[in-house]
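okkk here we go again. third time trying to get the flavin mononucleotide bound version out, last two times i messed up the smiles copy paste (missing a bracket lol). double checked this time i swear
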Amino acid sequence: MSSLDHFSQNLNHQPSLGASLPPLKIRKTTVEVPIIQGGMGIGLSTYTLAGNVAKEGGLGVLSSAALDRIVSARKGKKFNARDAAAQDVRDAKEIAGGKPIGMNIMVAVINQYGDSVLGSMDGGVDVIISGAGLPLALPEIALSHPRADDVALVPIASSGRALDIICRRWSRTGRLPDAVVVEGPLAGGHIAWKTLAEAEDPKNKLESLLEEVYPIAKKWGNFPVIAAGGIYSHQDILNSIDGGCQGVQMGTRFLATFESGANDEYKQFLVESTPEDIELASGPGSPCGMLFRVIKKSPFYQQALLRERAPKCDKGYLLNKGFCPSKYENEKTFCICNGLLASIDLNNQNEKRLYTVGENAYKINRIMSVRELMHELQGFPAIEVKAYV
Ligand SMILES: Cc1cc2nc3c(=O)[nH]c(=O)nc-3n(C[C@H](O)[C@H](O)[C@H](O)COP(=O)(O)O)c2cc1C
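finally!!
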């Protein structure tokens, strides 16, 4: 055994190392380290990423977006949305050694919403996290499943008002949120606001949103509050917990790991990016009307800015009031489904690639393993990368 192997083995047997951050309890699920790896669609928070995060004590979260295509391609046979969600959970759980796995399900992917919820529950999911719209119907769907009592239901909200509306509606079913993720304007992917002025308004800063949300969460049952959007370091996590949160959700840091589904160009852009390379796409922007943060030099976005991509949408995952506007025009919107599918090489129509990141992506200067990242985020001394790669 080399000395590095020996070091790595020792690392495996140091339970006291995790003591600095308190565990996160969500309904029946205990997450040893209060770090949720946020769901990242399409095909970025893969079963490999989520499984490894869970193995390291965090909550690994899959994304249900386009799982029918992703799992069918991976397994070489056709899966529908429900079976694909179940399979992805099983595959992640196998890596995780049975530790908790979550599924992120976007309300905006209207046509597959119910199947994604039920399929995840079939597969043994522990936590469902749902946003990109108000997840008003989530408990009604989940309660029709025999595992309903075992699965935690967690909405993503970006204001106290949104959480209050969700709780009022959910209370009619007898089920309240088991936790809430409060996502601020620095997050990757879609953010809750429609205009740059709203996204930059100090009253919408994560800290302000949390202050709004704490009393609402308390009023409806004192469930855990999880902060998301721009959280980067161990110190950021400590600050969030000191400020009153029970955990954090992080996306961009996990995107920049060996285990994520991001391709080599995506990871290279992450490492090279400066603050000027990251932009909130609004005109043209996402067809669902919310701002969407991109790496400016994503080939698909560059093409969209020049209006060189003809209007077309043949995928239909992300719908706005039942249809995708980018099917008919390219002035205000671009077809996000095609750009994101191209980024994971699941688009056979010569579409260019579209890359989304959080505002703090420019801080990333190298790609690391999930194990090293989880170690760093818990505030442990730096470890030798080669010990476990
Ligand atoms: C590449 C990428 C894709 C994302 N996709 C989704 C998604 O499909 N659904 C969702 O609810 N959130 C999505 N998010 C948001 C994350 O789950 C997380 O809340 C957010 O990234 C936290 O901010 P951070 O990136 O600054 O850590 C995505 C984030 C990134 C970076």
